[in-house]
Design goal:
4-stranded parallel β-sheet, alpha/beta
């Protein structure tokens, strides 16, 4: 019986026993056995393992993992150290600099944000190499909707940063008046100039958290060099046993 071995088990652990997830698991076993799938199976649940439920202060939603070699490691918009920074993340850094004056780091690894309480959650947690959205519709969306709904039930304050149409549709799951929902176009080069640039979500998130008695997020933590991403196959990383 699979469990995450962290406080998320108390919140969404029953999802792993449901029929949809058991079906998803069988699909993933075959995919990892016969295809190249990202992220590494030990990194699938990095977002939940790195940001415990009780520490969630903000949520950034992505769609599915990067589908190129050496990129995805279980945190949305984030890439592994030493990997070229993708265009959307470059735009996120550009907005961060304009909003808070934080110089963009040389790395695309957002693990320090996850440790600050920013849940970096893709709505589909795996993907086949070179095939975006190839694992959509197999059950991940049910699982991640359960995660989002669980955070919505969490005593506030929590800030949801919804960038792009797929993320903004998740607003239908959010009903807690103690939380703040911020919406903007996706940071992709195709849409960043349509309202992502200038949205000031980083400072607005911190202003909300501070006004409600919570410590602000140290967005500058990504510049500290304090990055300890789990290695592929590491027993300390979250895994999908028997795949």
């Amino acid at each position: 019986m699979f469990r995450l071995q962290c406080d998320w088990d108390e919140v969404i652990g029953t999802e792993f026993d449901k029929e949809y997830y058991l079906s998803l698991r069988e699909f993933l076993k075959n995919e990892y056995r016969t295809q190249t799938v990202y992220p590494d199976m030990y990194h699938i649940f990095n977002a939940l393992k790195t940001t415990p439920y009780q520490k969630v202060k903000a949520v950034i939603l992505g769609q599915d993992p990067y589908h190129g070699p050496g990129q995805a490691h279980g945190l949305c918009f984030s890439v592994q150290p030493g990997t070229e920074i993708p265009p959307s993340l470059k735009n996120i850094y550009q907005e961060l600099a304009a909003d808070l004056g934080i110089t963009p780091p040389a790395t695309g690894d957002l693990t320090p944000w996850a440790k600050e309480g920013v849940l970096l959650l893709n709505t589909t947690l795996t993907v086949r190499r070179g095939c975006p959205q190839s694992h959509a519709g197999h059950g991940w969306e049910i699982f991640t909707d359960a995660v989002i709904s669980a955070i919505d039930r969490k005593p506030g304050p929590v800030v949801f940063l919804l960038w792009g149409a797929p993320a903004r549709r998740k607003k239908l799951l959010l009903h807690n008046p103690d939380h703040l929902v911020l919406e903007a176009p996706h940071p992709s080069p195709l849409s960043a100039y349509q309202g992502f640039f200038g949205c000031r979500h980083f400072s607005r998130a911190n202003a909300f958290l501070t006004a409600h008695g919570a410590a602000p997020i140290r967005w500058e933590a990504i510049c500290s060099g304090d990055i300890q991403a789990p290695k592929a196959g590491s027993p300390s990383a979250a895994s999908l046993p028997s795949v």
